[in-house]
Design a protein that fits this description.
The chain is α+β, with helices and mostly antiparallel strands and 403 residues long. It has helices at 33-44, 63-74, 121-130, 156-166, 243-250, 261-268, 315-331, 347-369; strands at 7-8, 12-13, 22-28, 50-57, 79-83, 87-89, 92-94, 98-104, 108-116, 141-149, 172-177, 188-190, 193-195, 198-206, 210-215, 219-231, 234-238, 241-242, 273-277, 280-284, 286-290, 295-298, 307-312, 340-346, 374-379, 382-385, 392-393, 397-402. A hairpin with a 3-residue loop joins strand 1 and strand 2.
């Protein structure tokens, strides 16, 4: 892998340009939201003709103040973003801060929109936000970035709604906002507005390639089971046994996980559910235990009648997936060098790696960037659809490379 990038200013790499395109990242850990927003935006706005700011931030900030600070530096430049379970930049992983990516130059064209979840559900909100693609001009290479509320229900509906608007020609990428693993409320950002229970979209067109890589790094534990009873994202029975009991017994979970919601969530972070789907193996984050009805609650749909299995991973398997996802994203650029990488990394992978491991992971991502800026966040779910209608992932790393 390439050596670490030269560092300037707030610990960000120097701004690479692709002729009529540039990408830069700014970061701040200032505890004052308005100052943090201004500082990170000022560092990110390193080139002429900025087209979009992408904001990943601590949910503990006064988010209205944060956006005011950003607007003071960026003016009317479009802004999308969300709260996180931790932020990522080339200077390393962190919490309680803000990371802002700016793209600019005439080689990029951008259109943004946001929609709250209403009577049409997540699918309707996603379709409404994704409709911004219709106003997009610019180059032949396109992607739709989606940032959503991972606590709002079956996130596969977000993919279905966006697919309804853009079809198979435009790939989808993005992630679910976080709240530091409290699992209470997440926030989405659009312009100067703070939203919850919403979908935010940014359609990006470029005259240079963009590549997407997707890998999870988990392996199966034990024999497969049949999902004998489920409804949407709640699993009631596996092999006709209460799903929660089957999960805890098969994985020999520690005693507190049988009754303590916090202990259960911490354990479940590193023990997802695998599903056999027509598009291949999918992973589901087990977000909650139904202690009264002995069910498992996942972030996305688990179809009844399907085959499932429990999964686990370790640092070696997770970091091998990091390398594979980054390599696939960069390979999508062909002969072009990366202008920058955006990483959507599940909080569960962070749980496996620990503090030292996530630092090593960010170093590996930066190596694949070849000196270009890196930004991202720890998510409650990841979006990557490059073919077909399926495209929501759990406990996975999704990487978007821009040339």
């Amino acid at each position: 892998m390439s050596p670490q990038p030269a560092v300037t200013g707030l610990g960000m790499p120097k701004v690479p340009t692709g002729g009529d395109r540039w990408l830069a990242v700014g970061r701040s850990g200032d505890p004052d939201a308005k100052r943090a927003g201004a500082e990170a935006a000022r560092a990110a706005l390193a080139g002429d003709d900025p087209r979009l700011l992408i904001v990943f931030c601590w949910d503990g900030y006064d988010l209205t103040g944060l956006l005011e600070g950003i607007a003071g530096e960026a003016g009317t430049v479009p802004v999308v973003g969300c709260s996180t379970a931790g932020e990522i930049s080339a200077s390393g992983p962190g919490d309680s801060g803000v990371v802002i990516t700016a793209i600019g130059g005439s080689g990029f064209s951008v259109a943004t929109a946001a929609a709250r979840v209403g009577s049409g559900g997540l699918r309707g909100a996603s379709a409404e936000a994704a409709a911004c693609v219709a106003t997009l001009g610019g180059g032949d290479h396109r992607v739709l970035l989606l940032l959503t509320d991972g606590l709002a229900g079956d996130q596969q509906e977000v993919v279905r709604g966006a697919y309804q608007q853009v079809g198979a020609e435009i790939p989808l990428v993005g992630g679910c906002a976080g709240d530091g693993l409290r699992m209470k409320a997440t926030f989405q950002l659009h312009g100067t507005t703070v939203l919850d229970n919403a979908v935010v979209a940014a359609a990006i067109a470029s005259n240079a390639p963009m590549g997407i890589g997707v890998r999870h790094g988990w392996r199966r534990v034990g024999d497969p089971m049949v999902v004998t009873s489920s409804s949407d994202n709640r699993v009631f029975t596996l092999d006709d046994r209460p799903a929660l009991d089957a999960y805890l017994e098969r994985l020999e979970a520690p005693e507190p996980t049988w009754s303590d919601p916090v202990a259960f969530t911490r354990f479940a972070l590193t023990h997802p559910l695998g599903l056999n789907r027509r598009s291949g193996e999918e992973v589901r984050f087990v977000a909650e235990a139904g202690f009264e009805d002995r069910s498992l609650v996942c972030i996305a749909q688990v179809p009844q009648g399907g085959q499932a299995w429990f999964m686990e991973g370790d640092e070696d398997s997770v970091l091998a997936a990091t390398d594979a996802a980054c390599a696939a994203a960069v390979a999508g650029l062909g002969d072009s060098a990366p202008l920058g990488l955006l990483a959507f990394d599940c909080i569960a992978r962070r749980g496996v790696l620990g503090d030292a491991g996530i630092a090593r992971e960010v170093e590996r991502i930066s190596g694949f960037a070849g000196g270009a800026p890196v930004a991202g966040f720890y998510t409650y779910g990841e979006i990557a659809r490059t073919h077909g209608m399926s495209g929501f992932h759990n406990q996975t790393l999704v990487v978007l490379a821009l040339a």
